[in-house]
Design brief:
Layout lengths: L17 H22 L3 E7 L13 H9 L1 E3 L10 H10 L3 H4 L5 E3 L12 E3 L3 H10 L10 H7 L3 E6 L3 H4 L11 E4 L14 H9 L28 H22 L3 E7 L3 H6 L14 H23 L6 E6 L5 E4 L24 H10 L3 E3 L17 E3 L8 E6 L2 E5 L5 H12 L5 E6 L10 E2 L16 E5 L1 E3 L9 E4 L9 E2 L5 H4 L3 E4 L7 E3 L8 H9 L27 E7 L10 E7 L2 E8 L10
Parallel strand pairs: 1-7, 1-8, 2-21, 5-6, 5-7, 9-18, 14-15
Antiparallel strand pairs: 2-20, 3-4, 8-20, 9-19, 10-11, 11-12, 12-13, 13-16, 14-16, 17-18, 22-23, 23-24
Helix pairs in contact: 9-11, 12-13
Amino acid sequence: MVRADPLPVSAPVPFDTRPFRLGALALGLALSLTAVARAQPHNLIIFVADGLRSHVVTPETAPALAAVRSEGVDFQNSHSLYPTVTTPNASAIATGHYLGDTGDFGNTIYVKTPFPAPYVSVLAGIENDAVQGLANDRYGGNYLGEVSLLQAARAKGYATAVLGKFGPVGVQDVLSRDGTGTIVIDDGTGWRDGEGVALSPEIAAAIKAAGLPAQAPDRGLNGGGGAYNMAGVLVANIEQQDWFAAVATRVLLPRFKAQRKPFVLIFWSRDPDGTQHDQGDSLNTLTPGINGPTTMASIKNASNDLQALRDAVKALGLEADTDIVTTADHGFSVMSRESRSSGSAKLRYPDVKPGFLPPGFLGIDLARALHLKLYDGAGLPIDAKAGFHPKSGALIGKDPKHPLIAIAPNGGTNLIYLPGPNPKAMARRVVAALTKQDYIGAIFVRDGLGPIPGALSTRDVNLVGAARTPAPDIAVSFRSFSTGCADPEVCGAEVADSSQQQGQGIHGTLSRQDTHNFMAAVGPDFRKGFVDPAPVSNADWAPTLAKVLGLDMPPRGQLTGRVMGEALAEGGPPPPSQRLVKRSAPAANGFVTTLDYQQADGRLYFDAAGAPGRAIGLEP
């Protein structure tokens, strides 16, 4: 090898190397910036289409939702948590825990002692900002007892916001209530002084500067069963949701881009849920039920809002760095008020069609079967024979201040609490009465009160864990059935304890038309064009997204979802899964609760439960 002597410092350079040095410097800088860009956390949008059935989504009914499913990951074996109502699944989406840990067992739960006025019942409606704040005060400062995805994202430096439906929006970050943490905007914003979550003056000014009203157009703060219910609505919730979409696309997303920070935005769409509850296409008839034109318009309404978010992300140049996941808290059913066995259906009420079950029917039937006095949730006596019925839960016993039984209505499920001196004996009496009613689908009883023939354990459906709120002693899922179309999940009907009329929409059972929610995801961290056959649920979102975003969510309880690793861009096979069945011992009259469920990676996914012939999706 010939060694060249180094050139003297004063020697002329044989040729100009400066362009090469500058090019190398530029290339190194570019590579460095690329590495930084790749290290920058991605943004996340979670779009919740409340009450969206998986099988109803097509390119015709919901083009934007169908596009996410076809472009990215289609979670075809998806599950809502039981009970299949809103705030319980909101708590799962928020924390990645099943309800036995979060304690959010229903939209209405038992709290032993009433919260301060005006909340004078021991049965608290948790789908309410103010009640959530009171629950935090009573249960350790965080009634859920777990870290939420938005809390973890804030701690990591993300900008965070959640907007949409009153109730589940507040659940997403129950610690952000003063306007200084997560931006919280719901349909109570600007309307209820002292009851809603505070909005910072800066965000309120930004909404005004965008030419938008200071508050969302009113559509009724509690969804179905509101002022529109008796007459039924024939239009989707377009005006209100257009306001939320405008706030998201014209205020929040541009703000996040200008801040140059990664963000997590949750958009909780009230439609199709609210419109399905209140639709007037099918009053007092099971068909078309929730498949009429008003419901279809509400599904398209939710899809259009998702498309508006995607369009804004693209226009802002954020598409390559933003994951968009879509989910539904639960599926949906047609409301049935029919029963041949119920004594309550044989009585007359001024606001109920003759022969139909009234709201509070389970309380009426149990009080009569057990020969006990009946009160409404506020403790006022109810005389069913005189045409009265409970409307906000029921208390049973001699003294409403010390009830033997408290019933929290949650649509297709009722949660029963036994605060009396001998709950074990009472549980047997209650279950014996329940098994005689044709509207009962499945019965679950808390460990320590059983085993009781005809019932499985509440532990079997993950209702026993580290919850801070009182756990139900008995959970009852009502009967469901098909109205006759080719796909029972699309035209499922169920008996439910709520204010809807027969033919309007409802949910809450442990039946497949309610448990089969819509789930899909698209973005840089997810596979493209992948159909996931593995069972997944709303409890799996938070651990999966925490992994994607690099967040820390240390658990308090042990009922956690799993990381859906098979759906992520780095791939990997779906976990092995099993389909399993559990059956109770038969009651004296032969009633048996059967539970069909799946298992994957140590997690349970509940398909359907009931006596034979009383639950859609239950295998023969």
